[in-house]
Design a protein that fits this description.
The complex is a heterodimer of chains A (about 120) and B (about 110). By secondary structure, chain A is mostly beta strands. Helix content of chain A is about 0%, strand content about 50%. With about 110 residues, chain B is mainly β. In chain B, strands 2, 4, 5, 9, 10 and 11 form a 6-stranded mixed beta sheet that branches. A 5-stranded antiparallel beta sheet of chain B has the order 1-3-8-7-6, with no helix packed on it. Classes of the chains: A mainly beta (about 120), B mainly beta (about 110).
C-alpha cells in the first residue's frame, strides 16, 4: 500500500504562471487535507475535501487558489498567477474518515514551490 | 495565540541523552499527534494519542487530557533522530489539524 503520493516534489514557477500540485491519497482514503508551510513557520490548514466535495476551505486564500478532488484521479491544488509569497512547502494528508479520535492522517512528502 | 504551543523551539543534545519535547494546547481535542519532519523531507506520523501513553522503540509519548499537555520523549538519542518534531491536534469539532511550530532537534555525535 503506497503512502500518500505528491508530485512534483519540487516546482519552480515564474511570477504570473500557474502551479498545479497533485496529491494521490492512500488506497481506501477518501478524505484529503492540504496544508501550507511557509519558510520558518508552522503548517497551516488550507482545505479539506472528500471525493468530489469541498468540505472546509476556510484556510484557502480568497483569490487565485482552488482545490478539487474528482471522482477519479488525484486531488489538485491550483494556484493561479503565482507570486513570490506563494513560495512554500505544500503538504497533503489523507485519512479514511474525518479527522477525529480514531482517525490517523498520513502525510505526503510535500511539494516545494519556488516562485522566481 | 496559537492553539498549540511547543517547547523548546530548538534543542541540541549529545548522543545518548534523554530528550523531552513538550506540547500544550488550549482547545478541546479528539486526538493529539506527534509528527517528525526531516530537513527538506516529508512528514511522518509518530504517534496518535487520545489518552495515556504510547511507546515505539526509543520513542515515548504521553498525554494528560486534564492539563491539556503532551510530551514526547526520546531515550538514548542518536544523530539520526535529528529532525523537527511537530505536535498537532484534531479538534472535537472541525475538520482539520492544528499544528505547533515545531521543535528542531539536533543530536551531536
Amino acid at each position: 500500500n503506497a503512502g500518500v503520493m505528491q508530485n512534483p516534489r519540487h516546482l519552480v514557477r515564474r511570477r504570473g504562471q500557474e502551479a498545479r500540485l497533485r496529491c494521490s491519497p492512500m488506497k481506501g482514503h477518501s478524505h484529503v487535507y492540504w496544508y501550507r508551510q511557509l519558510p520558518e513557520e508552522g503548517l497551516k490548514f488550507m482545505v479539506y475535501l472528500q471525493k468530489e466535495n469541498i468540505i472546509d476551505e476556510s484556510g484557502m486564500p480568497k483569490e487565485r487558489f482552488s482545490a478539487e478532488f474528482p471522482k477519479e484521479g488525484p486531488s489538485i491544488l491550483r494556484i493561479q498567477q503565482v507570486v513570490r509569497g506563494d513560495s512554500a512547502a505544500y503538504f497533503c494528508a489523507s485519512s479514511p474518515s474525518r479527522a477525529g479520535r480514531n482517525t490517523e492522517a498520513f502525510f505526503g512528502q510535500g511539494t516545494r514551490l519556488t516562485v522566481v | 495565540k496559537n492553539e498549540v504551543e511547543q517547547s523548546p523551539q530548538n534543542l541540541t543534545a549529545q548522543e545518548g541523552e534523554f530528550i523531552t519535547i513538550n506540547c500544550s494546547y488550549s482547545v478541546g481535542i479528539s486526538a493529539l499527534h506527534w509528527l517528525q519532519q526531516h530537513p527538506g523531507g516529508g512528514i511522518v506520523s509518530l504517534f496518535m494519542l487520545s489518552s495515556g501513553k504510547k511507546k515505539h522503540g526509543r520513542l515515548i509519548a504521553t498525554i494528560n487530557i486534564q492539563e491539556k499537555h503532551s510530551s514526547l520523549h526520546i531515550t538514548a538519542s542518536h544523530p539520526r533522530d535529528s529532525a523537527v518534531y511537530i505536535c498537532a491536534v484534531s479538534l472535537n469539532t472541525g475538520n482539520q489539524f492544528y499544528f505547533g511550530t515545531g521543535t528542531s532537534l539536533t543530536v551531536i555525535p
